[in-house]
Amino acid sequence: MKKKKPNKKEEQEKTPEEIEFEKLSIFFDQYVSSGDLITKSAVICGIKRITYVKGKDLKQFFTEKFTDIQKEILSITQINIGKEANKDSLQKFYEVNQQRNILHYLQRFPGDKAKYPKKLLPLQKGDDMSLDLIFSESGFYILQTKVEKTNKPIIYLILLVILILFIVMFPLWPLNVKIGVLYLLMSILIFLIVFLILTIVVALVGVLFGYEIYIMPNLDDSKKSWKKRMFDPFISIEKRDDPLWFFICRIILIASLLMMGVIAYFYPTIPKESYKWIKNILSRIYGYGRKKIEEIHYKRNSVSVRDSQTLEDLENI
């Protein structure tokens, strides 16, 4: 068999600058995807849509992730940006990316005071070109990367359309599917309620023993991706430093809990009856929901006959 001749593109070797650009692109993309670096979209010169980062957000990202950034920049460019996060190391970090054509200064439209503008301009003739060389916390910087885009947005859109159609066609669902969806949704709701109660109980128990225990503590951190907000970390435990009076209150509460445990041990009917009561309530809720769905389903699919109140009248004709 004849070997395939490599095309001209395969024959051409990438220059060190191109290799560094691609590695820096991957470097920035991983932090943008994880939510550690905030980026926004804007239209530049009224023609092209670009991604940019605000100077203040870039500085915050640099300060919070300095150790990781220092190691990655050194491995990519063989340049040590500094030993600690300060003004000089941030300037050096910016220069590395500015020289590799990753970051460049952008300016607002005159009169635009938005926190994150929707339109931006590059430096024009007559502007101070040193603005592109010196990092400014109040500036805006285009983030040019060469990372291939995925088809995830299209896939999400298709799934959303399918979900909407699935919901809209609810009257046409078979009865078993309707009941199955009801049970699924109610089970999810019960799980969320139990999980919420569990997190509160765990936090209170932790306080009793001098620890702060939080499950999924990053839910309110909008700068992180949903995966990191839920699972990074999933549980955090920190030692509390409480005054003496709080320590005494803890001992009293722990003693009360132990007494409740002893009562439950000698009177097992209390927890058993509580379990039966909860089970009975859930059974009633499930039964009520199923009954309503069956009523709606059969009423919608019932056959109406003109001038006849019931179908039994047809047998007498």
Would you mind describing this structure in some detail?
This protein has a five-stranded mixed β-barrel. Strands 6-7 form a two-stranded antiparallel sheet. With 317 residues, it is an alpha+beta fold. The relative contact order is 0.07. The chain is flat and about 85 Å long. The longest helix is centred in the middle third of the chain and has 34 residues. The protein has ten helices and seven strands. It folds into two domains: 130 residues, no CATH class; 136 residues, no CATH class.
Q: Let me know the number of strands.
A: 7
Distance between the termini: 84 Å
Order of helices and strands: HHEEHHHEEEHHEHEHH
- Bulk shape: flat
Figure out the total of helices. 10
The low-confidence runs, each spanning 5 or more residues with pLDDT under 50, are 1-6, 304-311
Q: Major sheet: order of its strands?
A: 1-2-5-3-4
Question: What structural category arises from helix and sheet content?
Answer: alpha+beta
- Number of domains as seen in the coordinates: 2
Q: Please, what is the average pLDDT?
A: 80
What about the largest sheet?
5 strands, mixed, barrel
Task: Please tell me how large the radius of gyration is.
Answer: 32 Å
Strand content: 5-15%
Helix content: 40-55%
State the gist of this model:
54% of the residues lie in helices and 11% in strands. It has 317 residues and is an alpha+beta fold. The radius of gyration is 32 Å and the shape is flat.
Per-chain topology:
Elements: H1 8-11, H2 16-34, E1 40-44, E2 48-54, H3 55-64, H4 66-77, H5 87-99, E3 103-108, E4 119-122, E5 140-143, H6 152-168, H7 175-208, E6 211-215, H8 226-231, E7 235-239, H9 244-266, H10 269-300
Parallel strand pairs: 1-4
Antiparallel strand pairs: 1-2, 2-5, 3-4, 3-5, 6-7
Helix pairs in contact: 2-4, 7-10
